[in-house]
Amino acid sequence: MSATWNAGVIGCGSIAQAMHMPGYVGTRGVRLAAACDPDPARREEVRRFGADLRLYDDYRRMLAAEKLDVVSVCSPNRFHAAHAVAALNAGAHVLLEKPAALSLTEIADIRAAVRRSRRKLIVGFSHRFQSGNLKARELIRRGAIGRPYMIRVRFAHTGPYPGWAKNDWFYKPALAGGGAMLDMGIHAIDQCLWMLGPVRRVQAMSRTLRKRIRVDDNALMLLEFADGRALGYVDVGWTSPAGFNGLEIMGDEGMILIDYAAGMRLTTGKITPDLKTRPKLKTRLIDPTPTRGGWTVEVAECVKSFRRGDDRGLGIDAGGAALAVALAAYESSRTGKAVKVRPVR
């Protein structure tokens, strides 16, 4: 691979235009060389990213014609696996939008392509690039709150369309594979796994409460972690114009609260279960703007990792682990029962 890398993008919708394409344009040592989308309107919209940007209506034609060092897969969920495998087979590193795939079989196909191609793949869990979440993980690893036993995550907004997405593919089961529980929930699940470790069992409810769509617009998940000593609660939705967004992690010797709007705080101090010992709790502001980073640094950080030959712990195994929990959650919602999370191999 040359000193200056050529980047390509598959799918020219909102996430490509808001993050991936400007990310490549702003990353030193990278040239945004090509992009593809079957929709002429999307191709026209991305011409602003460079006079020399070559545009294609088919990803296969782009991968055959271009020598690309890194490719972002920004297509609808249904196509993630096929597009990621094709880009890997063409010799490119891949930055793959979440969810990594729609089945564990597709996860296995991507993993095989990673091994075969000897290229790296990173799943775009953008919350892992935010300053507050990075600090929280480091605090947990350092033992700042003792052993964690509970995590609560809420990610919600008004929904991808209208307003964010270029069209309504998010609301079509064949293209999206799921609703809010897969879209917002996959980020929340990844945060739980990243902070506290593997999940062994899920109980969930996903419902379409307000929007006239064929996928869920709100969901709740209860998580039992593999060590049997921690639980999790996830609340996600597409119908929330306001309210708390962020996460809270409770430990034996403190807690971390990350309010995406109001800042990140660390509370330390131990409370005995019988309350006989008077607690001495101290709370301090750790980060007033915990969402710093995220999309603004993700592409550059991923390119840096690709150049080093690593995947930041965000490879296909991370994508598969989060998807396995999400699939178990949908099964739980259908059956009304707690469901064991299938191991990802």
Structure, briefly:
It is built from 10 helices and 15 strands. With 345 residues, the protein is an alpha/beta fold. The chain folds into 2 domains: 5-125 and 296-313, 3-Layer(aba) Sandwich (Rossmann fold), CATH 3.40.50; 127-291 and 323-340, Dihydrodipicolinate Reductase, domain 2, CATH 3.30.360.
Structure description:
It is built from ten helices and 15 strands. With about 350 residues, it is an alpha/beta fold. The protein has two domains: about 5-125 and about 295-315, NAD(P)-binding Rossmann-like Domain (Rossmann fold); about 125-290 and about 325-340, Dihydrodipicolinate Reductase, domain 2, CATH 3.30.360. The strands form two sheets. The protein has a nine-stranded mixed sheet with strand order 14-13-12-11-7-10-9-8-15. Helix 1 (about 15-25) packs across helix 9 (about 295-310), helix 5 (about 105-115) runs antiparallel to helix 10 (about 315-335) and helix 8 packs across helix 10 (about 315-335).
Nearest-integer average pLDDT: 96
Spatial order of the strands forming the largest sheet? 14-13-12-11-7-10-9-8-15
Quickly name the level 1 CATH class of the largest domain: Alpha Beta
Helix content: 25-40%
Largest sheet: 9 strands, mixed
Please identify the structural class as seen in this structure. Answer: alpha/beta
